[in-house]
Every structure is written in structure tokens, then in C-alpha cells.
Amino acid sequence: MAISSSYRRGALTIIALVAVALAIRSSPGFLQPAGAAAPTGTVPNEIIVGYTGGHAPDLLAARVDMLGGTIVEHLTADNADRIRLPGNMPYETAARLLRRLPGVAFVEPNALLHAEAAPNDPLYAQQEWYTKLIGLPAAWDRQTGLPGVTVAVIDTGIDREHEDLRARLWINAREIPGDGIDNDQNGCIDDVNGCNFVTLLRERITSCGYTASVPNSDIFDDSGHGTRVAGVIGAPNNRLGMAGIAPNVRLMTVKAMDCDRAGTSIDVAKAIDYAVANGARVINLSLAGSTVSTVLSNAIDRATTAGTLVLAAAGNSGTSEIAFPASLPNVVAVGASGGAGAPDKRASFSNWGRQITVVAPGEDILTTTRDNGYRLSSGTSFSTPIVAGVAGLLLSQNPTLSVTDLVVILRSSAIDLPDRAEPYWDGDGRVKVDAALARVPSTFTGRVLLNGRPAPGGLPVTALVGGVVCGGGSTVASAGGATSYTFQVPATTARAGCGTVGAPVEFVLAGSPTPITATWQGALQQQDLRITLPAQHLLLQQGWNLISLPVDPVSTSIIDILAPIAGDVVSVFGFDSIKQEFTFYLPEAPAISTLREMKPGQGFWILLRRNATLDVAGLPLPPRMTVSLSKGLNLVGASLSSPISLDSLLRTSFQGEYLSILGFSDGPKGEFVIRVSNGPAAFTTLNDVQPGKGYWFIMATEGKLTFP
Fold first, then answer.
1. Which of 7, 90, 116, 652 could be joined to 19 by an S-S link, Cβ 3.0–4.6 Å?
2. Are 346 and 426 in contact (CB under 8 A)?
3. In this structure, are 297 and 148 located in the same domain?
4. Which helix (H) or strand (E) holds 265?
């Protein structure tokens, strides 16, 4: 999901945190919608310069010094510098001079961002109109979220002592509280519940009273906006207050907005990187603006690449232009539908257009406020966490879902709403939680053991539901010796004929049905494929035997294959057709032996002390197995399930020019049988090719032999 170049031009002005109170039905003092009363501007006297990697740092330092500026910090993730300019230096003048330096990729201001089963909670009645509208009660019957799924709220902080939030806060288990040490070395000391990235600017010292440099662990919500966003996502079902969309997920607090609901593009970018590095699978950005920051766009790119879903509010200016960063193609852009009186219409404040992914109710959304309070709030700031909560439920149902999986499920399960005079205002429709959960695939994963041994890597594994092929993959052999598989089986709602809850799922390994059956659950499921393969029997005689393997063995090690008759084996010879030389195995001298594996399609000479039966367990040989033939000698194993005439094999499945073909009748009195190219019929003693036998092909040219 790469960001197009059209999004990387221009300077970022204000990004408004899309909030808040278009219609508040309790006490006054709420934020106004972004776009209506949002301040404008950037961080005074600061500029960001990004590089291609080939810049000249000495030349840059000289130019900054000439301007009277200072390099404040280097942004490693973006290969960029944050530069403070003197107070009398116009931004455009500095930008023009810095852009001329070699290796400069972009120059932009440090932009300001501004905030814009049924629960038993006593205030839930105020939520019912929109929870029922989006199918949440039915979804809760199946999934209420898991603590292992973390949703990051990048905002003004969270009230950690709120009765309806404190039990659901993300806990950094790698950090020891209060010891003043960065125990996990993630750059933030004592970040037990999250981290603060609000840069210590002069204006913030004055207006907010900040004194500590960042990053630090002070995530107190001195604005209130972040606490409201968090409650919509994850307030628990605990007989207190209200219930969030995903009441059992964890809420990671990443503070990037100050007491005036203002942040910078650098602050938010750092917050995103922190959230991803510490395990957040979903990031909620209830912020919006009219232009683009390269630094922030890059951070979102990194998050998406790492498998973290980023959601952003479409904006509250009521226009047909989607705000940044919701306008980016790898962000889920969330618009707002109306309140209880007009739920199928666009909320009057919501931005709309083709870039909208889905919408969610955005008017009169009950949520938490600081100091154990609860209020109704409106804005796309509160539509966005509804969808973030839905994503948390989907990941709780199946944590292997990718960003693409999540977006496809959200889009395909949404309920299309009438466009009226505003085409595309609802994207693919209003989010529908129960329908989204019904589209979650089953992901099957586990070990693959054949006769108690790890299966070879690269074997195809297929899943069938009702005889319909619904998923598949290949076995993967790890360096530790284990073999595993992983693949998805979609829901019937996503692919007709595939899974519904409780439907039997059958597995096929390398084309052979297995005795293992699972049930489809629309979730991550551990299912080891432990398969017992019947042994195929090779009757061997005392003396020399020219054989091939009748199956693809569980282990190709010659020691493993010959273990049942190890005491009877004198020696084994193979042939390397590329080098045109013999290889050998001596049971009494394995260290000097050059033949270490026995594989299908190859022939082998075995010398035995007495008659024996070799039992070989393995998978059936693949149909139409092809063996490459070199010019000269080739020792080939017949990959057959039944005898076939040599004439038929040569006529239909042979390429190249042979001089002669030899077989061998086994035992102490064994003798060669032969077919000579263009030789007299009277000399021909080789007429049939037998399963389990080896044959010499003496080739005049290179060729191929394909067994039926």
C-alpha cells in the first residue's frame, strides 16, 4: 500500500484532531468540531529537512549556521533533521535555501496538529440505538475482545484512574514501575501504560506548565479528548458506566497532543513508531487536516508494513475533501453517519468523498470523560474509535489477520447507505459488526508429522469443506527440524461453499486424503496433522538388487530407510548422472560413504547377505513424475503404481535419444535384460517396466522421462 507521490507535496499546515461536540446533551464546555474553530499554524521557527541518504552533513551544518539556526534532533526513521530557525527568519526563505542542498529529499514545517452478550453497565441504555444499529449485541455473543489484542490511542492521553478504563489499560510487562530505568530499552523510562511524545516547546511551558523533556511516562490526559476516544473503543462490561465496542482489548496510551489539543507531525510520527514497536495491532488517529506531512506519512507506511492497521477520522468540516491522514491510501478513512433520528444519512459535519473506507455512527456517542465522568459526544473523532474497536474484535477472533484482511472484511461486511446528493459519502457503507465477524476466516496451523517424523518441506496441504477446495498452502521445514503449515479457510459469506461454524474441514496432504477432520470456527485453530502412512513392501533377494523406492519416503536418509534390514545390507550404490560417477554407502563405514539419501526417481544397487523385505513408509509418488536424463549413463527409478510396457512408456512419455536400456533380474543368479535402440527384436529381453525396480538409461542425448 504505497503512498502516491501526489500525497508527498506541499507543507503541512494544521491537522485538527476531529472531535467533539456538535451536539452535547449534558454540561457545557466541550470541544467544537474541527474545521469550525480549529487554530491554524505550525511550530514557530522550526523546519524539517529530509535526505535521500547522499546529503553532505558538513554543508548542511554550514548552511544552518549561516541562517543562524540550530539542528535540534535527528529523526533516524526518516533520515531527517529538525531545525530551529532564528525568530526573524521567514520559513519560505529558509526552505528555499535548504532545498538547494545536495541530497535533500523534502523540506517541510513542523506542523501543528489539533484535537478536533448485552452489557450490564447502567448507562448502556443511552448506547442501544447505535450498538443495535451496527449489530454489536449479536457480535458480543461471539466475541468481546481479548487482552492479547492492543489498540493504541494516539491522542491527548488517557485518565488512568477512570473507573471504566483503568482495568483495560495496556501494561508493559517488560518495564519495572518507578525505578527510573528504561528496563526494556525502548527509549521511554517507566512506560508501564504508555509514553508521552509531546515535545517541550516554549508555548507548552507557558500554557500547559510542562517541564519534562520527552519521551517520558507522563500520559495524564490534561485535555480530555483521549479519554473520550478510549472509552468508545474499550470501556469494559463491568457494571459501571458504559461499554466500549471491544470491552476486553487493551488500550495503549500514547500521548502526542498537549493540553490545548495540539501536537506536531514529529510527535505523532514518533508515537506511531512507539505503538508499532510495542505490539499495537490497531492505531486510532482521531485527527485531521488539509495538507500532508512526509514524516507522518512515512510513519504510517512503516506501521502498515509491520502489520498494524491505522484508522483516521475523515474530518468535521462537512466538505467533499477528505482530511489528512485519512486521505492516504493505506489508512482506513472513517466518516460519520447521523444520529438516532437520521441514522442512514451523513452527519452534517462529516467530510465525504471517494477516499472514505466506511462510516460509523458519529452523533450522540456515549463515552468516558475525565474524573469518572460520562457524556454524549459527536464528531468523526468518535466514529473512528467505533471502527477501531471493531478491528480489535476481528483480531481477537483471529489474530493472524493481515491489514489487507481487516480492510477487506470491514468493506465487504458494511451496509450500503443511500448516497442522495453526496456520492461516496459512506464509502462501502456503515460498519456492521456481526456481519464482519461472520466473514473472519479460519486460520489452520500446526505441525505435520508423518509416522512420528517431521514431514518434508514443500508438500502441498489442502483444506476441503463439503468437498470444495477452500484453502491451501505448503509445509515449511524449519532449521530446528520441525515442519509446519499455515493457511486460511474463508467463511461461506466470503466464498460460497466454504466455512460455516461447525462445518467439517478435511485435509489433503500431497494429494492424499488424511484421516484428520477439524471443524470450522472462523478463528485461529491449532490442528496438527499427525498421519500414519502404510508401508510399501519391497521383496529383495540375496545378492544384487536393482531397485527404486515405491513411495516418497518420510525420511530420505539412507540410514533411516534401510534401518529395518540394516544387518542384511552389505553395500548400496547409486549413480550421479551429472558427474557420471558412482556413489556408495557402506553400513560399516558411514563416515566415508558418499551416498547419503535415497529419493524417488532414482535407481539403486543393493547387495544383501540374505533374502529380506524392505518396508518403506511414505506418500504416494506424484503423478506424471519427470526424471531428467543426462547424456551418458542414468540410473533411474520407476515411479509407477503398476507395470507398464516399455514400448508404451517410450512412445508417450520419453524425450531424447537413447542407445540402450537395461534392467536386472534380482538375486544371486540375476542377469541383465536389455532394449537396444533400433536393435533386432531377437535381442530384446526388456519388455516391461516394473514398480520398485531401477533401470539404466544410456543416452545419446539429454532427455526426459515422465512416468504416468
1. 116
2. yes
3. yes
4. helix 265-277
The rounded mean pLDDT for the chain is: 89
What distance in Å separates the CA atoms of residue 190 and residue 421, rounded to the nearest whole number?
Answer: 52
Rounded CA separation 585/597 (Å): 10
CB proximity list for 195: less than 8 A, separation 6 or greater? 188, 215, 216, 217, 219, 253, 254, 255, 271, 274
Confidence (pLDDT) at 343: 96
Residue 520: domain span: 442-531
- b/e per residue 536-553 (b: at least 16 CB within 10 A): bebebbebbbbbbbbbbb
Place of cell 459512506: 426
Which residues are tagged catalytic?
155, 225, 381
473 with 353, same domain: the answer is no
Q: Select from 386, 404, 438 the last residue of a domain.
A: 438
Judge whether 686 lies within some domain.
Answer: yes
Assign 30 a pLDDT band (cuts: 50, 70, 90): very low
Q: Is the pTM of this model over 0.90?
A: no
Question: Do 432 and 449 fall into the same domain?
Answer: no
- Let me know whether 277 and 351 are in one domain: yes
User: Greatest CA span in the chain, whole angstroms?
Assistant: 109
Q: What is the DSSP string of 88-127?
A: T--HHHHHHHHHTSTTEEEEEEEEEEE-------TTGGGT
* List of long-range contacts for 178-186, beta carbons under 8 Å, 24+ apart: 186/274, 186/277, 186/278
Does position 15 have pLDDT exceeding 60, yes or no?
no
d(CA 303, CA 325): 13
Burial code (b: 16+ CB inside 10 Å, e: under 16) for 166-175 equals eebbbebeeb
Question: Is the pLDDT confidence value at 24 over 50?
Answer: no
Together in a domain, 477 and 541: no
What is the tally of structural domains in the chain?
A: 3
